TrEMBL record:
One of its GO terms (molecular function) is heparan sulfate 6-sulfotransferase activity. Gene3D superfamilies: P-loop containing nucleotide triphosphate hydrolases (3.40.50.300). InterPro entries: Heparan_SO4-6-sulfoTrfase, P-loop_NTPase. Its main location: membrane. It comes from the Eukaryota. Coiled coil: none annotated. This is Uncharacterized protein. It comes from Genlisea aurea. One of its GO terms (cellular component) is membrane. Keywords: Glycoprotein, Membrane, Transferase, Transmembrane, Transmembrane helix. The keyword Glycoprotein applies. It is found in: Membrane. It is a single-pass membrane protein.
Amino acid sequence: ADSDYTRCEYIVKNWASSSINSEVHNNKLVLRDLLFFLHIPRTGGRTYFYCFLGKLYSTSQQCPRSYDKLRFNPREKNCRLISTHDDYSVMSKFPRDRVSVVTILRNPIDRVFSTYEFSVEVAARFLIHPNLTSLAKGDKMLRLARKKSSTVSTLDIWPWKYLVPWMREDLFARRDARRLRGISDFSPYNSYEMKDIVMPLHDFISDPNVRDIVHNGATFQITGLTNNSYSAESHEVRRCVLRHPSLGKHVLEVAKKRLDEMLYVGLTENHKESATMFANVVGAQVISLHVESNHTTTDLDDSHDNDTSSGIRPEPYIHTYIHTYIRNYVSLFLSAEQNTGENEKPFPKNRNNTREKMTVPRLMEAYERCTVPLRKTHSQRRAKSLKLITPVNFTREERELVSEATLLEIASLNSLDMELYTYAHRIF
């Protein structure tokens, strides 16, 4: 055991030192050629993508969606936005000094709850099949249909491609057991403990699958150490940290350094403030760059000097804009409502094929209009799925009934994420 710890300590420390020393130290407040939205699952990133980024970047400027693996050559494709569940190791595929990274963090306990609930919700949709044999046939047909149409299923996306099939098999097994025992009536009870219908929350957080994929997931994703990593050494580093938790402090330092270098870090719980900051720090720069739906730019591997390259370059005013915002974003936001001057650039064609000049206040208005129907759709889909496992419903009231011991265990299992989230609050 001692020799394994010594070996792991050497591996983790070397990786941490190399990771920190490889960071690029350009002005982090300046938007670079490519924006990488490092989407940590269950943080509200889908809303940001559709209601912010989708309005800032035209379809032609968005990199091909890459959920299970990178499906384009980042040095050749003419794209300006990549939004993915990939971890930070995907940065090895890009010229790092020309990429800006943004992300959103969420309270780790809430994120574990949400991950559990979403895994159950998606898995429950498959209970329309009478058995696993029927499900397998249906899966095969769906894969063929998706291949022809190039559509993407939740089952293609990390980490759901691991969690949902696992949860799906569990739901089928519990349904089969109920049928054998003749159980069909259930009195109202806490959804998180209804073991006859669904895997109890405590069993979920204790499972090796969840320990490997979910716990401390934000820290591992930001450091490029998930089981979906592009880095060969990452898997050994992660295994060492899982075997020897005390080594996690080295990983945490890398994660904090990465947050420091990001263009923007939002917090799910500080929704309004985070959205306003995103619009002013990220949105303002994209707007200033004359983004058009038919805009074409140089490849990311363009080797021209920075002063003459035709890649994205913020206009001089944007530096003052950002620093003013950081000093007092409220006054900046209010003053921006009156700013219709020369710094604003045409916005890509909207769904009505009309062209208008986008401003930060207009972006915020569009964001707020977009979030309402999006959340309504999500709520309706969730309700429809959970009907298949009635009376499981995962209400807020039921969540409050979860024991303090379970909450403390979740916090302990996510100790790295808890500390990283606290750190994100400080820099926010």
